[in-house]
Design a protein that fits this description.
It is a single chain. The protein is of the alpha/beta class. The protein has one domain: TIM Barrel (Alpha-Beta Barrel), CATH 3.20.20. The protein contains nine helices and 14 strands. Strands 2, 3, 4, 7, 8 and 14 form a six-stranded parallel sheet that branches. A hairpin with a 2-residue loop joins strand 10 and strand 11. Helix 2 packs parallel to helix 4 and helix 5 crosses helix 6. It is globular and about 50 Å long. The chain starts with a helix and ends in a 28-residue tail after the last helix. The structure holds zinc ion. The site of zinc ion has 6 residues, from loops.
């Protein structure tokens, strides 16, 4: 290799993977197990790119159709904050659904520059689709989680990272932790777990300052973490400036999440998600018995529909 070629290779390595190219191994997602019956289940959907370019991509049209179907079936968008505060925003007669995006691909949040120099959100990126859909369907609620790793430029446009992160927080979305370098926790030594999680929080803090307080949910790179009480104890104690790094942790296993399991550390760190490149809303709707409170609290002293999830 010439020295110039070496320099180019070194620069490419420094710049990280170009957006739109998968640097991660596909999540280790087995075929979805039969959906369980029950009344405390809710779906957490996992998307990667919103385009047609990658193995785990879902097209913009398909993503919008998913939203249409979920809304018409009576779902309501929630975020990790809602799990922490007892689902207080959930309207009676609606079922919670959480929409999550992994890796921070540009097709999740893309700015276009108009001829006059101003910026607009690409109407075909995930945020553009969500904003339009939620504005026109207020009963669906608002919010989604963007799990960010720093092995690449978050959302692909270096110059707009700060603007994008703060736009998301302004509009009720959540920034989640997908670790600093997107290495699987399955093969990593336990001593590396802390820096992998706090490194991402530290990087996000540079752009959002004290708004980092809401970044306490993590999606495990590759979709899984080791089992065991010692693992749970260790992961539960990692924090950055007093903010739990993995107050809630999300796997990809094709199953429905279970509100009841959130009361244990093991359950909080392994909240089930369905990879929507491998599943569909139609398949999801084959399940009956989603959590759906039919009556709402009469006043502020009535019990919450679901007791708050402790974060430690
Ligand atoms: Zn990932």
């Amino acid at each position: 290799m010439t020295s110039f070629a070496c320099l180019l290779a070194a620069l490419a390595a420094l710049a990280g993977t170009p957006p739109g190219v998968y640097s991660c191994e596909p999540p280790d997602t087995p075929p979805p197990p039969p959906l369980p019956e029950g009344s405390d289940r809710f779906p957490v959907l996992c998307y990667h790119s919103i385009d047609t370019g990658g193995e785990l991509s879902v097209s913009a049209r398909r993503f919008r159709n998913d939203l249409e179907q979920l809304e018409s079936e009576g779902f309501f968008l929630i975020t990790p904050e809602d799990l922490s505060n007892g689902l207080v925003r959930l309207p009676a007669g609606r079922s919670p659904v959480m929409i999550t995006f992994d890796d921070g691909w540009q097709s999740q949040f893309n700015y276009l520059r108009r001829p006059d120099g101003s910026l607009e959100i690409d109407p075909r990126c995930a945020v553009g689709i969500l904003e339009e859909f939620c504005d026109s369907h207020p009963d669906f609620g608002r919010g989604a989680v963007f799990f960010i790793s720093f092995d690449k430029i978050p959302f692909g446009q270096q110059e707009y990272i700060e603007q994008k992160f703060n736009f998301l927080l302004d509009r009720g979305y959540c920034i989640g932790n997908h670790s600093a370098r997107h290495r699987s926790f399955m093969g990593m030594g336990a001593d590396s777990w802390g820096p992998a999680l706090t490194g991402a929080q530290e990087a996000v803090k540079k752009y959002v300052g004290i708004r980092l307080g809401g970044m306490y949910a993590a999606a495990w790179p590759g979709g899984m973490i080791p089992e065991g009480a010692r693992v749970d104890e260790r992961l539960s104690t990692i924090s950055f400036e007093g903010i739990p790094s993995a107050g809630l942790g999300f796997v990809v296993d094709g199953a429905l999440a279970d509100l009841g399991s959130l009361r244990s550390a093991s359950g909080r760190l392994r909240i089930s998600r369905m990879d929507m490149a491998l599943s569909s809303v139609t398949r999801l709707l084959g399940h009956r018995g989603f959590y759906r409170p039919e009556t709402w609290r009469e006043d502020l002293h009535s019990p919450m529909p679901f007791s708050a999830v402790p974060l430690d």
